Amino acid sequence: MTLITRRNLIVASAGGLLAGCDSIGKSATGRDILFKAEAVHRSLQRTIMNRDALAREFSPEDMSPRFRSNGTRNPNTDAYRALAENRFVDWRLRVDGLVTRPLSLSLADLRAMPQRAQITRHDCVEGWSAIGKWQGPKLSAILDAAGLRDTARYLVFHCADSLRGGAYYESIDLIDAFHPQTILAWAMNDRILPVSHGAPVRLRVERQLGYKHAKYVMRVEAVASLDGVGRGKGGYWEDVADYEWYAGI
């Protein structure tokens, strides 16, 4: 069964200019049409929609037989290879910035926390979707352990991968950070998260498009403003390709 969603209608509205992810990648005109349509929707969404609403969750029977990876498939740096070869035993997630109790969490620490598992649809800005299962602790529980300061407004995710010589980064506000479906996933489809999907940990922020779901997360930084993050737009693709910062679906 084909799901008719707002996302499908936006992609369809671009007609022949958007014939899948390859066409989007090659057509600046196609990207412009898609982003303008998305921008109009998100502007209205921020004004009239309930951002606390849950993303739809699916049954195991709905899971996609193939779930392609988005973005980087392997950071392939010396530091990352060393972590991966040791099954990320030495990996630590830093949680710092505007917090009262900075944290350094191992993968075992994250697995020992209360877990949330959810089967959701991943919508990529390139025009494809897939349904998969994700498991990990709620981001809100980690933030509660760290103790956000009153001045914190955003979270910045610093990642192990890089593009065009620059480290990848993304950000969300506290509304999405404390959403019950926002997790740091270490498992996918009941298996350890594979490298191509962001091992050891990736962000799942289920009511936003796929590029907001930062992979290979190394550090979560609480900040008061996005002005000092990259070029000031809050994310790698937002800075280099004018993607919208709020990618709600």
TrEMBL record:
Residues 90-223 form the Oxidoreductase molybdopterin-binding domain. SUPFAM superfamilies: Oxidoreductase molybdopterin-binding domain (SSF56524). PROSITE patterns: PROKAR_LIPOPROTEIN. PANTHER family: BLL0505 PROTEIN, PROTEIN-METHIONINE-SULFOXIDE REDUCTASE. Transmembrane segments: none annotated. Pfam families: Oxidored_molyb. This is Molybdopterin-dependent oxidoreductase.
